[in-house]
Request: fold
Amino acid sequence: MENYKYADFVKKSQQEFFVFEKKDLIKSENINDVLQTPSINLIILFVTKGEAVFTINGEDVVLKEEETRIFSSDDYSDIHKNILHEEKLDFMLMCISEGFINKYIITSPTSPFYNEIFENNTQKIEKDTRVSSCLQKIKQLYDQVENDIDKLEYYLIIETFIYLLLIISKYFIKKKYVENRIRGKEVINKLHNLFLLNPTINFTIGDFSNQLGISKYLLNKSVKNTLGISAKKLLNDWLIEEVKKDLVRGELVKNVASKYGFSESTNFSKFFKKNEKITIREFCCKINQ
Reply:
């Protein structure tokens, strides 16, 4: 591609799918019109070397080596204006047309992956060897078959790009799972702090959710997704642990029952046996052995 001219650029850009490296863009003449062509619907940018910060839609975006970014066509002019002449940054740009998406993605089994991944603009994929390897493979295939659109469609469009969709989908599924786990742990930590302030049977799930500022449904979902048990079960487990601490210290059963909001010792005994599978007497005998 040493003699890469504007005419070659236009010819490529009119395809449903085209891939460029930074050096290709710089060698081209008068590329502004092509870079803003309405046929482009989606841009995938892969940073091959360096790091830079540029502004897109009024917000600073940090680009790092071996990081992948997904943009919409609305961001194309900002990408060109900000990073094309950034000396410390090398990149590969993959441009997908609306025709390509309608023809190969929307009508394929990968359509749900497309909707999930690409409809949220400016997505970031941190260093991931599977994604970067697939992107490099697409570039190699593209260079090999750029003069034969039939081969390009078969090897690149139908197979490799759809495989890339699946890889990116798995990346975001894993990322979302990790983020949900982190948020779940944060909710549980806050719930535990509130419980220590109100360690009684009378403080309900609704009371705790109101204090946390979330619905009972979201509270239960966070606990269930993180620990595999209901919020009610978790609170009962915590309450039992506090009860057992007092019993181990030798406090009277009726005083312990009253402390944790039980109006009658009988109800307290039933609660203890239901959760511990042994009676209070059996527990006390066990710790005194």
